Write the structure tokens for this entry.
Amino acid sequence: MTPDLIELDPKYEWYPCRGEIIKDIQEYILKGPYLNVLDVGAGDGRVLDGLGVLRICRKYAIEIQPCFYPILKDKGYKLLDTDFVGFAWFASVLDAVWDVIVCNPPFTYAVEWIEKILMCKKFNRLIVLCPAVHRGHFVSDEWGMELYKTAPVDNFVEYQGIDLLIKEHNQ
């Protein structure tokens, strides 16, 4: 099922990862093996699909758009919850050990989502797509993220492109 054939609620700002961004993510985490990967804001699962070339045993997703639930389930991804911001049992996810957390948040709420993910106590790698306009907030002493790559995005001039930010070993 393609995104143009499903009913999307525009308030959730679904901007899917493009192929070149998925390749950048693959390139960065290719050092695997990874047992647990969590995709926060998974959409139709295309980032998890793109990680299929890696040795990943368990793929988990958090996604709010109901139209994507059957797609994620059909692909074999475990849907942990549907509302990241209102995630009632988020503490158990924070205490879990994640080899990789990937997040492509709605740009309007990028800061809120990324800060919440950075509270996660145990992960080996965190990879977030973030509007470049917020780069200084996260590439700082407080949050300790690093800029991996920046991709220009034609439709998001106000965001100054998309940054691929990373953080390793938050344990």
